[in-house]
Amino acid sequence: MTREVRIRVNGQLKRVESAPDTPLLYVLTDEMHLQGPRFGCGLAQCGSCSVLLDGAEIRSCVTPVAAVNGKSVTTLEGLPRWYAEQKKLSHVPELHPVQQTVIEEQAVQCGYCYNGLIIKAAELLSKNSRPSDQEIRTAMNGHLCRCGSYPRMMKAIRSASEMMRSGTRAAESVETRPGELAVNVAAGESEAAQ
Amino acid sequence: MSRNTAEAASREPALDATLPTNGGMGRRDFLKAGGALIVGFSSAAVLADTLLAQGPPGFRMPGPDPTQIDTWLAIHSDNTATVYIGYVELGQGSTTSLLQVSAEELDLDMNQVSTVRVDTKMSPNQGGTYSSSAIARGSPAIRQAAAAARLALLIMAAERLESPADNLIVAKGVVSVAGKPGRSVTYGELIGDKRFDIQITGHERLKPVAEYTLVGSRPPRNDIPGKVRGTYTYLQHVRLPGMLHGRIVRPRGQGAYGLGAKVTSLDETSIAHIPGARVVRKSDFVGVVAPREWDAVRAARELKITWDMPPILPGSDDVYEAMRAEKTFDHVVLQRGDVDAAFGAATPLHTASGTFHCPYQAHACFGPNGALADVRSDSALLICSSQDVYTTRGTVARILGLQPDQVRAQYYEGSGTYGHSCYDDAAQAAAIMSQLAGKPVRLQFMRWDEHGWDPYGPAHVGEVRIAADANGKLVAYQYDGWHHNWAAVETSQQLALGTPAQEWRLGAAQQVNPSDCGGMYAIPNVKLVNHQVDGLKYLKAAWLRSPLDLSFSFASEQTMDELARKLSMDAYAFRRMNIANERWQGVLDAVARAAEWNPRPPASQVSHETVVRGRGIGLGTHLTSYGAAVAEIEVNRETGQVSVKHLYGAIDAGLAVNPAFIENQISGQLVQATSRMLKEEVTFNKTNVTSLDWNSYPILRFEECPEVTPIVVQRIDQRSTGAGEEVMAATAGAIACAFFDATGVHMREFPLTPRRVLAALHRS
Lengths: 194, 764
Prior knowledge:
The structure holds two protein chains of two kinds.
Chain A: E1 5-9, E2 12-16, H1 24-31, E3 50-53, E4 56-59, E5 72-74, H2 79-87, H3 97-104, H4 114-127, H5 133-140, H6 150-166, E6 185-187
Parallel strand pairs in A: 1-5
Antiparallel strand pairs in A: 1-2, 3-4, 3-5
Helix pairs in contact in A: 3-6
Chain B: H1 27-32, H2 44-47, H3 51-54, H4 69-72, E1 73-75, E2 81-83, H5 94-106, E3 113-115, H6 139-161, E4 168-171, E5 174-177, E6 180-186, H7 187-191, H8 224-229, E7 244-249, E8 262-267, E9 278-282, E10 285-290, H9 293-302, E11 304-308, H10 319-325, E12 329-336, H11 339-343, E13 349-358, E14 370-375, E15 380-384, H12 389-400, E16 407-411, H13 423-437, E17 441-444, H14 447-452, E18 460-469, E19 474-484, H15 491-497, E20 525-533, H16 549-566, H17 571-577, H18 582-594, E21 611-620, E22 626-636, E23 642-652, H19 659-678, E24 707-713, H20 728-743, H21 754-763
Parallel strand pairs in B: 2-3, 7-17, 15-16, 19-20, 23-24
Antiparallel strand pairs in B: 1-2, 4-5, 5-6, 7-10, 8-11, 9-10, 12-20, 13-18, 14-15, 14-17, 18-19, 21-22, 22-23
Helix pairs in contact in B: 5-6, 12-13, 13-15, 16-20, 19-20
């Protein structure tokens, strides 16, 4: 007799139908129809499938669902709720600060890796609210981005860290004076991953 | 009432690679080849003029009639508009930019316009989203349709408001009589959800660039919030009712393209223990399907199958020698003046030359490709990530034995594709599997399928020689390039139907690119020769972001710096004095200024420290835009480790519809080009490819990422051109030149891995 597997996903207790050796990723995507975790390699090499397991980032593509029986899984969709619990907020914000700053920085290109980048950054900031640039790079180094958006992700993490500490929004993104067409060369801001 | 300013605004990217101007397949070739190849150079608006003129009598591109306003947009009762776009979103932001163009011309706000998924049931056929063409070639048709719609609405409003059309003004879709704001009517009230049934003449007046308020501004991308929340549906998330999960079964890593793969034994009972799993096979095409995804993964893994894989590949270490030894099809791409005579001249000349080796590189999509198909006896639904749904539909229909209009193809975005990755192969495989299984099938490539069966960017050998006079003026330039061409038949079709492997025709498609090979400099004597290798004994290939342009600039720009050193000239000054075109000068100046470039000859400050620093400047492009880059790097002489510290990249892509998106594209190109120069190479032995995952095909990591400074050179008076790949080549050149500056040694081969760097330093 196979033991029944139950997991808590984004706060809700779920009974798992899949076989116990099924990787957690397939349970989340096929059974629970979540779209945060994404299949990338099935080898724990890239990070696109990452979720938080009791607050720690894991690779759901190589984690048998039986191994997380009784535990609490947070996916990208559940990050705001998880953040509210962490911070003991009275209500669940619309977005986790990292999600918010990623949007503000317009960091994303294709965005496929951003599940893992955001999950990992959220884990980092939950443990270390003021990471140095080197600590950010070290923490994020196991997450690949094919589009090369690391510099903007770096800025988004710094900005989220600031927001979480100050409790305020980070600086508004550079915007848009409609109608303004620069005739001359406009040198963009440096985007620092270093 | 002319089209004079029509072309002035369009814009940029498409993260993806291209069909070169100098020789893609013509319509006639496409038709002769049975349509298995890619077309789609043109926007629908120019269809009537060009493609029809070249096609057989009565031929019309499939898809809705591009001359009708209703093909392009609909105005709703709530005063919003749906714009039908034929170009796909690849994470480059072109959907948002094309909406900017539409809203601008219609006098709507950004929040009044939206679009729908690209779908052969409803989308205009604008050809493929290739060549960074979404804005350059996609926007004119959309702009003209929007102008036609606005004109039609103004005529309706003139009647309704009993006022001459000349006396009407429009803001946010509200038409009012000038000076009498009370007399107004909305677009929605005029036509709400009804058809226009009006033909686009192409002569409708377009808004002058000087009046633009949305084009040139920086509204945020409309796809990012969903991608960040986890609500965006990537192809990999799509499910169909009653479907089976499918996996293909192939050897781990492709062999020679011409051979495909031959099944020598297959034991279907080996997966009998897996619930519901079964084999679907058509000749040498093998797949497995199962109701549960994990069971399909297990079945593919556990199926007992053997393959015949003859050891005829040269192997990645010997590929360059092998290509140089081949009998090639030679084609002079460009000849001007007399290069041999110039090199032989008695006047004092400085010359530099070299041979350069550039590896196969993979698209390596971050999320492996997939597709879903529901094939019935008389129809099929195909859900795929094709950059050209109409062409994919045609090919899949032929494979299935259906007519193209019996197949509906829908686009869902996968991960960034950067050219022709496995998306067509996956679409064909899903269709074949659904037909065999008699059920809807969701096919997902595994990581090793994607890496191992990618149509790679081809390997290349470049031989370049350049001569300058005593004053540093370039007098002669010759580039000889060896490589094979792109695959014209996908592996699924090859295995299932026995269709012979076939490359694009000789001389066409992948060629030595005159824009990169000396094209930015004013040189009186130039000769560019393309030596095309027969690719059937090599790997399957296709266009990879900025196809071969990195290789050309790697070879050409290093040779330029060698000359600069011989002339004791600064690399920037040397380039600048040899450029006649002000737009090339513009990007070169912009990037040099941003990097605070200080003049000195290359490799003039080589130190003997363990860690040495260097900087390099490079030019390059893909097709029509202008790219320049500066690289600042460090080289550790003991470990051979190259570290790129800071990159500056400038693009002039004409009028930038959304400069923010181009900045993001530049940043990505700088980082991805670094990855390709430092880390990426497809390895293979005599039998098959051995780069099968991120360990065996490493890419740049977070800790290795340079600081980047993107620079958009805005040219409001110039037609928009591509911006999704045009600074890759310049970056490749700049990094290579920076290595030379740091060490005094030229790298003759990339990627600049520690092993290769140590060998080069040791040789010198």
